[in-house]
Amino acid sequence: MTLQWTVVAFFLYAEIGLNLILCIPFISAKRWRLVFNWRIWKLLSPYWNKCFFTMILVLIVLLLDAVREVDKYSRPEPLQDAKANPSVYDHVHMKLFRAQRNLYISGFSLFLWLIMRRIFSLLNQIAVTLEDNTSLQTQMDSAVRAAQKFQEDNQLLERALLDEEKAMTISNQQLKTEVEKLKKQVKAADEAVRKSNAEVEAMKKQAKGLAQEYDRLLTEHHQLQVTHTHTHTREPQ
User: Fold this and answer.
1) Buried b (16+ CB within 10 A) or exposed e, 134-148
2) Per-residue exposure over 196-219, b if at least 16 CB sit within 10 Å of its own CB, e if not
3) Which parts pass through the membrane (predicted)?
4) 8: pLDDT strictly greater than 60
């Protein structure tokens, strides 16, 4: 195996190992996100896309070279030449086997390279989704607590309003009772005023009658005095 295919083979083995590690179930996406957020990856992130596409181009070139080799040693001409010489026949089959091996190595390396990038992307998206779900769950819990508190405040407000309404009802009843008492007192005062006015009218009438009787008595007294004076005047003659 030449140096380039040895490197591709080790690259394939590394990809297989890394993909197996990424698929370990007890390592969560959050932990992988912590690993992806290491400072070293942030420093290498500007070169990541370039490295990724460069490896794709290299693997495609190697894959095409392997396809060319397989096609080369699969044609009838080398096999016809190999039939004439048994050593050449073994050599052609060995070359064909190596070409097919290189084709599988380069093809699987390219496939796993694309799969690995997709796995990285999915793990990162899962971690972000879990973080968003956690924040949404926290917001939902806070919203539920706020709603419960709002409901409790509404219940307290309703109780306060009921108590205030009861107090206002009692106060209104007391005010109505006081008003009824005042009405009765006003009515009694009106009756007393009417009685007083009637007594005053009666006293006025009585006083008027007494004044008339007094005037009549004065008139009679004056007449009696005049009569008595005339009587005394006539007696000495």
Assistant:
1) eeeeeeeeeeeeeee
2) eeeeeeeeeeeeeeeeeeeeeeee
3) 7-27, 47-67, 103-120
4) yes
